[in-house]
Design goal:
It is found in: Cellular thylakoid membrane; Membrane. Its main location: membrane. This protein has one helix and no strands. It is mainly α and 41 residues long.
């Protein structure tokens, strides 16, 4: 089962962008949850 190299070339930048977005949004979401929990305590 060989993966076509062109598919990898097309999907790689999309995967990198999605990972970067999840990394940035995840960090902000984690800070927001921590702030919420600290405010409740």
């Amino acid at each position: 089962m060989d993966i076509d190299f062109r598919v990898a070339v097309v999907l790689a930048p999309i995967a990198i962008a999605a990972g970067w977005a999840v990394f940035n949004i995840g960090a902000a979401a984690l800070r927001q949850v921590q702030n919420f929990l600290n405010r409740e305590a």
